[in-house]
Amino acid sequence: MAESWDRSYDHACQSDESYNFERMHIEPIYDAFVCPLTKQVMRDPVNIENGHTFERGAIEKWFRECRESGRKPVCPLTLKELRSTDLNPSIALRNTIEEWSARNDSAQIDMARRSLTLGSSESDTLQALTYIDHICQKGRSNKHVIRNAELIPMIVDMLKSSSRKVRCKALETLRIVAEDDTDNKEIMAEGDTVRTIVKFLSHELSKEREEAVSLLYELSKSETLCEKIGAVNGAILILVGMTSSNSENVLTVEKADRTLENLERCEKNVRQMAENGRLRPLLRLILEGPPETKVSMAAFLGELVLSNEVKVFVARSVGSSLVNLMRSGNVQSREAALKALNQISSHDASAVILIEAGILPPLVKDLFTVGPNQLPMRLKEVSATILANLVNPGYDFDSVPLGPDHQTLVSEDIVHNLLHLISNTGPAIECKLLQVLVGLTSSPTTVLYIVAAIKSSGATISLVQFIEAPQRDLRLASIKLLQNLSPHMGQELADALRGAASQLGSLIGIITENTGITEEQAAAVGLLADLPERDLGLTRQMLDEGAFQLIISRVIRVRQRETRGGRHLTPYLGGLVKVLARLTFALPDEAGALALCCEHDLAAVFIELLHCDGQDNVQMAAAMALENLSQESKNLTRFPELPPQGFCASIFPCFGNPPVITGLCKIHRGTCSLKETFCLLEGHAVEKLVALLDHTNEKVVEASLAALSTLLDDGVDTAQGVAVLCEAEGLQPILDVLLEKRTENLRRRAVWVMERLLRTEEIAYEVSGNPNVSTALVDAFQHADFRTRQVAERALKHIDKIPNFSGVFANMG
């Protein structure tokens, strides 16, 4: 076979394939068939005046050049002048040439057929494919010849060749055969041809990928084939990947992109593209498609899983259109829009875009509407979910009107309606609407509106009752809401929890549930921790129910790492310690609290908790508890009983010496222990508290300084307290706190401690030379509250900055 192809070549012109095929003939070529000017077989032979025959296009060009050069027309062969440039078609010759060409083409096609088998040599197969390219490019009618010769399936078979060159050439030939020929494309659509072509998209060799995508682009021009291409598993995914690839050449990327543009004509393909990250076609249909298409595409958008970045893009692109669709009276349209909006509203940035697109008024209206036009309950649940998504604590909802009456989401009537729905719908909607209130109460700009509305509606008890809900999500939402409300409604919530119902027990049960630490547990203990710590009734009820024993057990297990932590560990432990600390506020009034503190050695527990670096709330609550415990030390210390004096010593004191008793606490002047009298000195807590005076959190510093202040309080040996602080190197940190003036509370506490320290002459003498201390005390004397100014005056007297006879303020103890 190869010899037949080779024998027909004119080797002098092998650089031009098209020319080679023109010179390749099975039957002998006659000189009369060849144009003297082009040296090729003529297709449209014409005669000139002297009878010579030329190709029409060639002789017309010759005459044109004669005119343009200013010469008279001459015969190209004889160079004799012609009187006329008229051309006469040589019909007989043309028919003869066409018959001769048809016989040759038929023979050559037959040769190509014999070469298009997997058993043929690579060179024969390539030559056959090249010939098919040639005749298809020579005339569109020849594509019909190729189709009728049933060569297309044979070319497709060449895609299975082991030769890379043959596979690439077959892809190229199929593209040429398919160009502008619908019938040929339909033949290629039969069987697994499209699937085979798609496989080439993931081949390692870039040339095969390039040819395959070019062929798919050509096939995708047929709407029938668009659906078939999209139906091939992975086709659209690979094409989308190619458009975003940095490793493909520019032409391949462009062809892949244009192929996808053609495939967009099929809605199934648009859905696939959206699933694989090419969202623009779907969004375009939502914006511009017919009504039924908008609805179906919006519904599909609601089923997609989108990244946060994509949610923002979608909100910007079609947010307004989806809001308009949601406003329509058609339930199907509203459902599709709501599902899409639910998907894209779950990111803060996209939620803001939707709010600005006007989503709130129709959304709230859908929630509150009752009667014939109301949404089905399943769609009200979606509406509630969207509203929960939209409530971003950083947004000013007081500035977004919901209608012509200028009400907003935080208006009293709107909040009352939300509370009514919370009490009268199913758990799913109740949970979402509670989350709405959680969002609104998380913002300092809106929380007071919600507090006022809850108080005016009398809904506190109803909200507290959700603590006992069987659904975990519903309980969590209610507990988080109550936690947000507790700084503003602490006493009301404490009263509600102390009621006849078992909500307090349920809350303790959630906190102490023997599981890994959950968000619900962290929120529950945070709520309990934020309730007024001096509410003795609540503390007594917790004592009666054994709550503190459970809390102590949980604290110990967390510290011993017996409980799995995670991201909720820090707030959970902080809440536990603060709840436990409330026990120390009841020490003066509740014997049971004192007994529990002694039994469980709570002073040691709180001292150990001072080491929780990085957990500010734990350290603050522990220091606060130690302050309360230390306040009781002077009342709990046991003073020694002195033996009675002898007879002589009672009459003549000079005959008796006072007994010497060792082992007494130098601060409390009695027998102290950490476990029973909570003595900070016995517990070696002073150094730890001093170390916390350098903490970055001023609340931790304030609590630590308050605990240390108990060593200088009335009722203890103040001089010894000063000595203990000096031994612990606490003087300079206390001075630093005074000089920094971080908060008014800290300054008040630091001035008080400083005045006690300056009662010691050595310290007063040392400090008097420090102008910064003097300045700080003078500033407090001039600008602080009345009580602090009075203490600052006494401190300034100690360092001789104010004469002792001066009395700006009346003594107040």
From TrEMBL:
Q: What is its EC number?
A: 2.3.2.27
- What UniProt keywords apply to this chain's record, in alphabetical order? Repeat, Transferase
Instruction: State the InterPro entries in the record.
Output: ARM-like (IPR011989), ARM-type_fold (IPR016024), Armadillo (IPR000225), RING-Ubox_PUB (IPR045210), U-box_domain_protein (IPR052608), Ubox_domain (IPR003613), Znf_RING/FYVE/PHD (IPR013083)
Q: Which SUPFAM superfamilies match?
A: ARM repeat, RING/U-box
Top-level taxon of origin: Eukaryota
> What are the U-box domain coordinates in residue numbering?
28-107
Against SMART domains, the record matches this protein to: ARM, Ubox
Q: Name one GO biological process term.
A: protein ubiquitination
The record, for Pfam families, names:
U-box
Q: Name one GO molecular function term.
A: ubiquitin protein ligase activity
Show the catalytic activity: S-ubiquitinyl-[E2 ubiquitin-conjugating enzyme]-L-cysteine + [acceptor protein]-L-lysine = [E2 ubiquitin-conjugating enzyme]-L-cysteine + N(6)-ubiquitinyl-[acceptor protein]-L-lysine
Write out the pathway annotation from the protein's UniProt entry. Answer: Protein modification; protein ubiquitination
- The molecule here is called RING-type E3 ubiquitin transferase
